[in-house]
Write a structure and sequence with these properties.
This protein has 278 residues and is α/β, with parallel strands linked by helices. It has a single domain, classed as 3-Layer(aba) Sandwich (Rossmann fold). It contains twelve helices and ten strands. The strands form two sheets. It has an eight-stranded mixed β-sheet with strand order 5-6-2-7-1-8-9-10, sandwiched between helices. A two-stranded antiparallel ribbon has the order 3-4. A hairpin with a 3-residue loop joins strand 5 and strand 6. The chain starts with a strand and ends with a helix.
Amino acid sequence: MKIATVGKGGAGKTTIAGTLARVLADRGAGVLAIDGDPNPNLALMLGVEQARIEGIPFIPPNIMRIKEDPDGTRRLELTHPESEVLERYSVGAPDNIKLIVMGHPPDGSAGSGCMCASHRAVRGLIAEMSAVGEHTITDMEAGLEHLKRGTARNVDIMLVVAEPYYRSLEAAARTCRLARELEVPHVFVVANKVASDADSQAIAAFCSRHDMPIVATVPADSRFVEAERAAKAPIDFDANSPGVQAIRTLADRLTEITTTGTPAARTGGSVSDAATDN
């Protein structure tokens, strides 16, 4: 399955993406992780050692090119074989995960140019890279720009990470609308940093009003904060913390959805509850 995590800045999408990748890889699945954020942090959440992070290569924007077929159809194609892309631009993370990191603006400095080509490169990689194994997990740029450019068009599942406050939920609603316009097959909300029943009820009520299915609830976990202070992946810091356990449940639900091919009903309740209602 091809998964993208999206959300407002600070919502926790990178933590969800990195931990979900580790959970799936620990179960024996081949995982390609793509950091599609120009401010990349996925390596740390995957458990790549701090000393290696600075040396991670960025994919060049010209890794993809637009090709026009004889019938006039335009499509993206890799300018290098998959094996070469992995050899030159990927780094290994724990549990045999392969990580590819999106490039910076043209010369790497502020005001140096737009990220159009880099977004195109990420869009192409999501669609074309299949040599690693069963799963591709992409941590998208915060905000909506990547969706407006269609960067996440080729994913099977979009996880919209939302915190229990109004601005985050409003951003999640806009993201869900755009994702549906892109015809992403499965668009789900991950309720993150939930500290109380009141938080959970507020998210459920908002999502119900806006026709947004909740696939998982991840609690506000102090162990995640401690892991970040220690510059460690949450799953390496405490593999049994409440947050990690919730993401294991998320992995179970996503696997079931893709295996059975049964989409969740568009409701504010959980996916499992929605499936029962149908």
